[in-house]
Amino acid sequence: MAAAAGLYDPRFEHDACGVGFVADLSGRGGHDVVDRALRVLCHLDHRGAKGGDPDTGDGAGILTQIPDAFFRATCGFALPDPGSYAAGMTFILSSERAVVTRAVERLAEVEGLIALGWRDVPHDAAACGAGARAVMPDLVQLFVAGADGQSGAELERMVFCLRKRAEHEAGAYFASLSARTIVYKGMLSATQLGPFYPDLSDPRYGSALALVHSRFSTNTFPSWPLAHPYRYVAHNGEINTIRGNRNWMRAREAMLASDLIPASRDGKGIERLFPILDEAASDSASFDECLELLHMGGRSLPHAVLMMIPEPWESHEEMTPERRAFYQFHAALMEPWDGPALIAFTDGSVIGAVLDRNGLRPGRYWVTSDGLVVLASEVGVLDIDPATVIRKGRLQPGRVFLADTASGRIVEDEEVKAALAAEHPYESWLHAGLVHLDDLPDRALPSRDTVPVPGPALPPSDTAPSSPDLVALQRMHGYTEEELRTGRGWCSTTSPSCSPRSPTRRWTRSGRSSSPRSARSPALSRICWTPSRRPAARSSCPSR
Asked: Is the domain of 404 the same as that of 476?
């Protein structure tokens, strides 16, 4: 990814793109699903973008289930039973390949995995533009298995740990590493993806679902790793709260703990996965990394998605108490990742999409009588006989569209949320553990020592808090020199609510009060916000 230079800053990476998926509710899986998904992608080509080189796209990709039969026929080494091995697409610099592959194999061993082998991914470099070729990495697939025959979610968590460590310690980038799904992507246009990766045209390459994406890199630079899909999501839009989301995730890392994340053989715990978010990547990449952590921590994928993209629940008068409690409980754990954003997501079994509560990104879906499900950013992406369509509609703000290929049905929004709300006694947890800041007793400043206030003499009772204590508190809470100069500092009050009508005293750099009070005013009794900086009610929950 490009370094900050001039007006460009990688922290502001955003996307506005085309998203689509195809799924077979029968779960049979076949090459026809992959072929249809590639056609959907081609019809979203106009939603992607290209640079000065018209043959170099901003990015395109596809996520599918692991094509077990195809890999057994082409990888050249023995594979365990389906679900007992993981495969991943890796981007490695050619000059570092030998060093990186050895480092990844060593990390696999300490994570309790066996490296089964590496497969060079066939590709046609002539199918992409000169700009993409100039920065194209080596495209290699890694196959690993558990040393003790692990499978399912246990194996998924082990390879999650391997991938995070490989990226932090070995310098490899994994587009995916999973026992359930695999990603093919690159710095390509939508129409180039199929010709570039011959694997995707092989009739033996089958899947029951496929998620595709055509990238429009908004005011940013394209790159091979920043193409979509990521490991779980493809995203159209942008996360406008991304800086706050990243800051909160970084702050939470010290408190992260999970019995489900195994320790490595070299004695390292969950801290080996830090940092969870790569702040040099795009907003979509950070969303995917956070979603992955929540999912690996034991939550279902819809559960994790609704934690990050809740529906507007605070003033929803018709919402059930159970669902409201679900959202209120999780609001104490995580702030919303607000868009506008359309997020399509899959774990290889369920596939779906959700709009954030702003609802400003389009999404249309169709379901046919033979179990075909198609969703895309717009209509007309696939030729479907209208006589076979039994259901169609559009995504709505805060509502989930979910297809389950394992159970062979569409799971309704109400059913998804009712099941999640009933999974735990959230109302009881809130009643027992939620503490509102307004209910806490008044608290004095750490020191009641005072120093003379510079400037005109003030009565003894109107002296400022001890300078070292006040400065430390101001720094801890993020006050700036500008705020102190304009009088937006700490205030003194005896009012329990610190309302705008309450008598307040705001301390400036000069120590003078911006709203003088009587000399009979009591000493500072609590720290609170001035009316000009008063935040919304906040809460903490010891249940977390």
From this structure: no
